[in-house]
C-alpha cells in the first residue's frame, strides 16, 4: 500500500477509510487532520510555538506569524550543546606582545560590545549582554498557511561564529514569517512605498516588542550547565541585503545606510562624511503628532522616509544605523 500510494494526506485518508484498520493498528486518530493536531499540540518540541496576529495597514489586514523571541533566546542561551562555548563579557585581543595590533573576530572582541557594556554598567553594574542578531532575505519567499511570506531568523552574539557558520549546529532559528503583499490597490507611488515600509515595521514591532523591557530591565536566564545571569537582550545586528537595509533604516535609495554621504558621492574617497545621527532621526519621527505635512517635511530634512513608528524606535541601547551591516 505504501509503495502504491505514498505518504500524502490523501493517501492517509484512503488508508483510514479501510474497515478495521484503525482498530487493528490501535490508532488514537481517525484521519490526517487529527494526526496533525497530535503532532502540533501533544509532541514536546522544546521550542516556542508560532502565533498569529493581524496588522492593519492602508485599510488592509495582514497576518504575521512569529514565535516568542524571549523564549527562543532562552532556548539558545540554555542549550547544553552551547554551554562551554558561550561568551559573557567583552574582551580585547592583540596580535603582538606590545598590544599595538588589535584582533577582531567574534562579537565579544568588537567595539560595539565594549561601548554598550559601559553604557549598561552605568545603569546596571555587573549585568550580562545578550546581543540579538536578526537576519532576513526577502528573496526567500515561501508558502505559509496558503499565503506567501518571507522568513526572519534569529541568533545571539554569545555563540561563537564557528558554530553559527554551521547550519547543523541549530544556532540560527526561524523567528517569524512576514507578509509579502505588494499593496497593488495603492496607485500613488509615494503612498505605495510608504505603505510597504509601514507594513514591514508594524510587523516587526509585534515580533520584537518584548526586547524593550528585556533590554532596559533585563531578565534572568540560565546556561545549559546551570550558570544563571541577569541578562539584557539588546538588538545588536541586522543582516540583510541593501534593499532591506533601506526598508529598515528609512534611507532613500542610492544613499548610504550608515553615514550622511550623498548618493552622488558614494563612490568618492575624498568626500567628508559623518555617521547618521540617531537623535536627529528620532526627533524627526516624533513630529508625527504635528500632522502629516509637518511629519513629511521633517523626515525629508533628516534624510529619511516618513515611517510611522519604526520597530527600532524604542529599543534600548540600539542605534539602527550601527546595527545594519553594509554589503560589499
Descriptive overview:
It is a single chain. This protein is of the alpha+beta class. Helix content is 34%, strand content 19%. The protein contains 13 helices and 10 strands. The chain has helices at residues 2-5, 9-16, 21-25, 32-41, 69-77, 111-123, 161-164, 189-208, 211-216, 242-249, 278-285, 292-302, 320-323, and strands spanning 51-57, 60-66, 93-94, 102-103, 128-136, 142-144, 147-156, 173-179, 219-222, 228-239. The longest helix is centred in the middle third of the chain and has 20 residues, at 189-208. The radius of gyration is 24 Å and the shape is globular.
Short summary:
By secondary structure, the chain is α+β, with helices and mostly antiparallel strands. The protein is built from 13 helices and 10 strands.
List the helices and strands and how they pair.
Blueprint: H1 2-5, H2 9-16, H3 21-25, H4 32-41, E1 51-57, E2 60-66, H5 69-77, E3 93-94, E4 102-103, H6 111-123, E5 128-136, E6 142-144, E7 147-156, H7 161-164, E8 173-179, H8 189-208, H9 211-216, E9 219-222, E10 228-239, H10 242-249, H11 278-285, H12 292-302, H13 320-323
Parallel strand pairs: 5-10
Antiparallel strand pairs: 1-2, 2-8, 3-4, 5-7, 6-7, 7-8, 9-10
Helix pairs in contact: 11-12
List keywords for this structure.
alpha+beta, globular, single chain, two-stranded antiparallel ribbon
Amino acid at each position: 500500500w505504501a509503495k502504491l500510494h505514498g505518504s500524502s494526506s490523501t493517501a492517509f485518508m484512503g488508508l483510514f477509510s479501510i474497515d478495521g484498520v484503525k482498530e487493528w493498528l490501535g490508532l488514537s486518530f481517525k484521519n490526517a487532520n487529527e494526526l496533525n493536531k497530535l503532532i502540533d499540540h501533544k509532541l514536546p518540541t522544546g521550542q516556542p510555538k508560532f502565533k498569529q496576529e493581524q496588522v492593519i495597514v492602508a485599510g488592509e489586514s495582514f497576518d504575521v506569524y512569529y514565535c516568542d523571541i524571549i523564549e527562543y533566546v532562552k532556548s539558545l542561551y540554555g542549550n547544553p550543546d552551547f554551554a562551554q562555548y558561550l561568551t559573557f563579557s567583552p574582551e580585547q585581543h592583540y596580535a603582538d606582545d606590545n598590544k599595538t595590533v588589535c584582533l577582531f573576530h567574534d562579537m565579544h572582541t568588537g567595539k560595539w560590545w565594549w561601548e554598550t557594556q559601559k553604557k549598561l554598567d552605568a545603569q546596571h553594574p555587573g549585568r550580562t549582554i545578550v546581543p540579538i542578531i536578526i537576519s532576513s532575505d526577502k528573496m526567500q519567499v515561501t508558502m505559509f498557511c496558503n499565503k506567501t511570506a518571507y522568513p526572519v531568523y534569529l541568533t545571539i552574539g554569545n555563540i561563537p561564529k564557528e558554530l553559527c557558520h554551521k547550519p547543523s549546529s541549530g544556532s540560527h532559528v526561524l523567528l517569524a514569517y512576514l507578509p509579502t503583499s505588494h499593496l497593488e490597490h495603492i496607485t500613488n507611488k509615494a503612498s505605495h512605498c510608504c505603505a510597504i515600509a509601514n507594513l514591514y515595521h508594524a510587523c516587526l514591532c509585534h515580533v520584537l516588542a518584548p526586547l524593550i523591557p528585556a533590554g532596559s530591565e533585563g531578565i534572568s536566564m540560565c546556561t545549559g550547565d546551570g550558570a544563571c545571569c541577569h541578562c539584557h537582550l539588546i538588538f545588536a545586528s541586522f543582516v540583510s541585503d541593501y534593499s532591506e537595509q533601506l526598508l529598515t533604516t528609512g534611507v532613500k535609495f542610492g544613499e548610504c545606510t550608515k553615514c550622511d554621504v550623498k548618493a552622488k558621492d558614494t563612490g568618492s574617497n575624498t568626500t567628508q562624511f559623518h555617521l547618521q545621527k540617531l537623535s536627529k532621526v528620532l526627533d524627526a519621527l516624533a513630529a508625527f503628532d504635528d500632522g502629516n505635512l509637518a511629519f513629511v517635511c521633517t523626515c525629508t530634512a533628516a534624510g529619511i522616509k516618513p515611517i510611522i513608528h519604526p520597530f527600532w524606535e524604542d529599543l534600548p541601547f540600539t542605534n539602527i544605523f550601527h546595527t545594519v551591516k553594509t554589503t560589499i
